[in-house]
Amino acid sequence: MKQFLKKTVLFLCIPMAVMLIGLLLPPTPRAEQSLLLVAPIKDSMLQHVKQPRIILVSGSSMGFGLVSQIVKDSLHRNPINTGIHGGMGLYYLLDNTAQYIQKGDIVVLAPEYHQFFGDFCEGNEELLRVYFDNKNGLDFFKLRAVQLKKTYPYIPRYAMSKFIPSQYFNLKTQEFYSKRAFNEYGDVNQHWGQTWPNPVVFEKIDGDYLNTDVLQAVVEFNELVKSKGATLYFTFPGYLEHSFGVGKPQIKEFEAALRKTNLTILGTPEQYIMTPDLIFDTPYHLTKEGATKRTQLLVKDLKTQMQKDHLE
Amino acid sequence: MLFNSVDFLIFLPIVFGLYWFATKGNLKLQNILLLVSSYFFYACWDWRFLFLLMFSTVLDYYTGLQMYDAQSQRMKRFWFWLSVCINLGFLGVFKYYNFFADSLATALNGMGFEAHFWTLQVILPVGISFYTFHGLSYVIDIYKDRIKPERNFVDYSVFVSFFPLLVAGPIERATHLLPQIQTKRQFNYRQAVDGLRQILWGLFKKMVIADNCAEYANMVFANSADHSGSTHIMGVIFFTFQIYGDFSGYSDIALGTARLFGVELLRNFAYPFFSRDTAEYWRRWHISLSSWFRDYLYIPLGGSKGGTWMKVRNTFIIFIVSGFWHGAAWTYVFWGFLNALYIMPSIIFNTNRHNMEIVAKGRVFPTFNELFHIVTTFSLTVFAFIFFRAVDMAHAFQFVTEIFSMSTFTPPKGIRNEVVWLIVIMLLVEWAGRENKYALEKLGMRWPRPLRWAFYALIVLLIFWFQTMKEVAFIYFQF
């Protein structure tokens, strides 16, 4: 038995050592082109953009769904579009934004519907990569327990990626999914003027239950924003009409739960339904025309609410 | 708790440690520990169904004793049928009630009658088909005086619920497993190492082959109207490798895990894709179920003793029942029927036992003739799996129609080359190890240890890299 245990442990040391080396190696050239690389840049914007500010928080539906210049011109506030990738999870988006909120900020939260179902809000491989490739890897271990539980299984795969040839060669990627995709406000604009041949269509929203914990996290985020002398508005992402139709029962369930909270909610989910011609490559990613339409709707809602709240 | 989950990665070493260290080789304690662990393992899915498992265990244990102690043949028959009816009754209610209610309503409505039946909103208890058949084999063997009943309740309960086989087999026999449970087990280094190797290969087949093939197969079957005939063909081929990787991978993990506890389970797969005809295929695919049907249905029906007509009838019966065992849907029934058709020529011409040895035994390559037969048998298997995987019969026929359309002559879309390479690697390793119980059993045994360990470590790293990061349940759990 001793021999068995000794040899088993000894054998397990081989893959463990390979993984450790993988973790310690610098980010691969492919990872260095990834759009996740803008996470520290967006953090820097949150730190340094001057008042009056409006911070727009979500995943890629915000990155690919906003024309910040319109926001700036209409509301006379400096926009910071923090949207990068929904796979980082809403918990990350809330916690990361929270540390940079300043007095007088207006925070607009418009998460993808997927963030409220199942465990999507806890993040995926992208969350791990944000820390290990772009931030301090040790900070990863300071995440919420649920985020760690969800994402640590990606560690071996991440470590292994350092040894995969495709991470070093033939690095051509779509510009709109690279670190060069963003403008000075944080909007993805590399795809503006382009069309995508076969956009992905989501059917039912993944995740078989409405996650009330994440709703509670949003409510707590609202309290924190208020305590810092800022204001939070909740609104909805632009979403392809077919996917909206299929996911409607879930979206309505989510909306009903949302309206029971004390959050200030702008508009309705239906208002932000997008026809196929306004969609780029996924149901949340909008073309320039789609992003313009979505921004105009948002600005209209914001103006009305800000007047009510005497924030203009 | 899935074999490919972190939970199991924690559960297994704990039970292993307690089993060999805390029980100090005491058989009674070992069996109690196995029973408690098995119930915990099962309760992780849904603790409520644990009571169903316990009830089934008590029922078969009690009726087994009553049959053996019965004073008359009449009483023996009474206890036997009581057990059979209750066991099949549970299976019927949980698995088949809705199917029969819907089918009857559809048939009556088709004849102009307005019929509605209540359908049950029930979840299928995981593993019910497996542990029911497990218990039935025990009861039937006692009834037929093949075995004596087990009087130790803990030992019998371990036989039914031993966690490696509890949810998806292999379907064990009392004659094989019970003596092992009753015998003192001592740690055997070679057996344990062998077990770990088999678990490793099982995990590779499940997490690398099956889960990656599943992504493509699911995409094709979910939106089959959007794809060409060639993509349909690739979709069903990927599904064939998915189900093989999934179920044979599960079986390897189950057998390997059992070995860690000093228990040898029945073999469930023996390289079915290298079969030269359908009869050989069915001797190599889901062996514990095929042999169950052979022993408890085919032979009692008369087997092959009553001439060709009897053989044909009995073969159709067992294949259709086997299809129905897999699921309450006409697609499974048709899948069984199709396999019966495939095997018919060898039944009629009495050639079903021509290929008893593994192909190309003692040689590196098969002959051209062998290869031709392997490819033909595999193609037939793939075709039948269309019906196994399709949502319903209309979907299956639409799928088949698309395969026989002109779009089959266009290149298939969406295939990840690396998955194809992984399938090739799996087939090569399985081919190299086809004369052994499982592919890795003797592969690399003559290599220097560093090379052998590097090979195993490479498999671990391939699992890390190619895992799909979703804990995908094993397909056979639904049966």
Automatic annotation (TrEMBL), chain A:
Stated name of the protein: Uncharacterized protein
TrEMBL record, chain B:
Protein name: D-alanyl-lipoteichoic acid acyltransferase DltB, MBOAT superfamily
Record-level Gene Ontology MF annotations: acyltransferase activity
Cellular-component GO terms for this entry: plasma membrane
Bilayer disposition of the protein: Multi-pass membrane protein
Primary localisation category: membrane
Family recorded in the similarity comment: Belongs to the membrane-bound acyltransferase family.
Record-linked InterPro entries: Ac/AlaTfrase_AlgI/DltB, AlgI, MB_O-acyltransferase, MBOAT_fam
Species per Swiss-Prot/TrEMBL record: Flavobacterium caeni
Pfam families: MBOAT (PF03062)
Regions that span the bilayer: 5-22, 34-58, 78-97, 117-141, 371-391, 453-477
Record's keyword annotation contains Transferase: yes
Alphabetic keyword roster: Acyltransferase, Cell membrane, Membrane, Transferase, Transmembrane, Transmembrane helix
Subcellular localization, as worded in the UniProt entry: Cell membrane
Gene Ontology BP annotations: alginic acid biosynthetic process
